[in-house]
Amino acid sequence: MKRILVKNLYNEVNNEVCIKGWVHKIRKLSKVSFLILRDRTGLIQCVVDNNVDIKDIKLESVIEIVGKVVEGKNKISNVEIQVEELRVISKVQEELPIEVNKEELDVNLETILDHRVLSLRHEKINSIFKIQSIIAQGFREYLINEGFTEMFTPKIVSEGAEGGTAIFKVKYFEREAYLAQSPQFYKQMMVGAGYERVFEIAHVYRAEEHNTSRHLNEYVSMDLEMGFIEDEREIMKLETGILKHIMLKLTNECKDLLDTCHIELPKIKETIPSITFSQAINILEKEYGKLCEEGDLDPQGEKLICKYAEEKLGSEFLFITDYPRKKRPMYTMPKDKEFTHSFDLLFRGLEITTGGQRIHEHSMLKENMIYKGLNPDNFTAYMEVFKYGMPPHGGLAIGLERLTSQILGLKNVREASLFPRDRTRILP
Amino acid sequence: MKRILVKNLYNEVNNEVCIKGWVHKIRKLSKVSFLILRDRTGLIQCVVDNNVDIKDIKLESVIEIVGKVVEGKNKISNVEIQVEELRVISKVQEELPIEVNKEELDVNLETILDHRVLSLRHEKINSIFKIQSIIAQGFREYLINEGFTEMFTPKIVSEGAEGGTAIFKVKYFEREAYLAQSPQFYKQMMVGAGYERVFEIAHVYRAEEHNTSRHLNEYVSMDLEMGFIEDEREIMKLETGILKHIMLKLTNECKDLLDTCHIELPKIKETIPSITFSQAINILEKEYGKLCEEGDLDPQGEKLICKYAEEKLGSEFLFITDYPRKKRPMYTMPKDKEFTHSFDLLFRGLEITTGGQRIHEHSMLKENMIYKGLNPDNFTAYMEVFKYGMPPHGGLAIGLERLTSQILGLKNVREASLFPRDRTRILP
Lengths: 428, 428
What we know:
homodimer, CATH 2.40.50.140, 2 domains, five-stranded mixed β-barrel
């Protein structure tokens, strides 16, 4: 007998059907029992006569039920199942370490992550990753429509793209290699290879020692790069379009999931407000008495400037532009001596994007490497493209877990990573 | 002035336009010169009067042209540009190491890969990766439509999934970790977490020492896993649907690119023929006098059995099923004592997919680990899910570079990898 998904049962009133899924709840009364079955599409109440023996069935077992669909108002749905046969497909063998059928999963994050497979069965936690998959698809859809080509670039690399020491080493046969901190070099190379517009959604690796609620050592980066731009403003405009498309897609495809998580999506203005880095520093000092360390917005600074943007500029998103050269990587296009053609996008108190225009002239790139204390000889493979005709270009990267986390109001970016990797965790 | 893409110029006859791109070819005559400009959408002939000085413009420079679109039959298009202004955006500074404007790029693979950014500008090589991106999108589209959820699982892992020693080590802070050989454990865990149907397109890592035309040490794996199946036949049926959808999408969206590469797409039968592993071994011996080492089809065996499938079964695709237990990983569902519920898919002489039903019972999994000489204590995080209700399930993985390579008739799988990683290459 063919399995019917829970979401399609309303179509089967008075029919005999077969359903399969996990035992979500059992409530025993004197004459009947109510068993709630869960599949990937939802919950359904099943009425079990006492002539069917269910006393050995534990919560979260996988079962198959054959029964008749009848109309019946209950809290979950307008239909229910009168059980005729019930078969256990896979038994639960041990006491469940967490209770996944509660409205709120009242355990700490470490326990949630230790028992990831079980915690993912909880409705609200399950929804996070269905929503995340829609976000990623929205990013792709929008860019494909704008003439971008999807690419797959190596994560085992011989050069670090972002500088610094935060790079994982890999033993690559006789040699040492690294895990890519970003696809930066490759996406620029692909622009120069004639694709002009490219994107990639893939893992990147940062061997940062600190354990914070905002960082992961392995995360999913939604990267794009675009040729023949005037300056970074075009990239910012493109990002505005991407985010609008993602919100529209979430509205259209995830209404139930968003309701489950009590989420209101952010509104995005026609043009997202934008202030320069220097303005941001001034505003923080004047409005909030907050002093920032030279050339950087710390987490508290990001929160306060977002508060300012929401209250004074009416936007949950804020672009900050014109970052100082000292604080941006060597490939960033300078803007006069001190600043750069670069931007960050902050959303609800957190940086979710770094982007900007890149240097496309070989000699300028070489000079900027030296300015940043780097040796151009270490970047020969990357630099080749700049000798053979490279258009002006720029791009950005959006952290998928951060964007998910901020949309859903999660407290820790780990909650938006299926199996997070941090300073101490590589399991499960 | 707004840039117009080459593909849209037919719409602009008699208008003044701005186009940007690379200098593909220059032919100088006594009174005029012909310059062919290339952008991401195609080639266009530009007619340059001798009053515009182009003697210093080298091939592959990036230029901007303002001019009038006129009708004019030439080999490339029905329109051409009468150049009014020409500006060099980015100069070529060195002699080009390869000639990218030839019909065939007559250099060896090492040179192609050494100068990857330039070789990618060659029309035929460029097309490979546009086609590859459509293949990946076709895989996703079909599965999303079938109720699958896209997932992003970690590539830094603490346990090897595929067994053997072919695993790269990463220094993970104070500890040792590995690069994932496949998302196998995670996709099974996600089925058990209630998503039931999941897929991922991401890199996997195999530290295999041999350098062959069929292997990469880092490749893109298109993975899926599906719960509540009867047996591996459902997965084979799903794969047939995926491949048909990919071919249809290529036909609809890549006709020009396929013509450029002189490619005829394979026809896929309603049901792809299927033979057991034992039958394959017998056929090879009887028909071709080919003896296989116990329990394996070697590359020559794969080629011959595909020849057989094409000639006798009328199909370029062939499923081989019922592989011996000895040759399949520990998570494979056994079928009696000797064989398994597993399959490979061969296409034009090469294995492009491995798949099958997996074990979903904790005790059977434990026994099978011991049978395979593994210690179950090393897999505790993976095994947890099997204690708490796990449906019958199965899945497969398609190598993206191999599928691309076989569709396009490439000789070496490296040709279908943007920046391949092999025994000796980690650059560019």
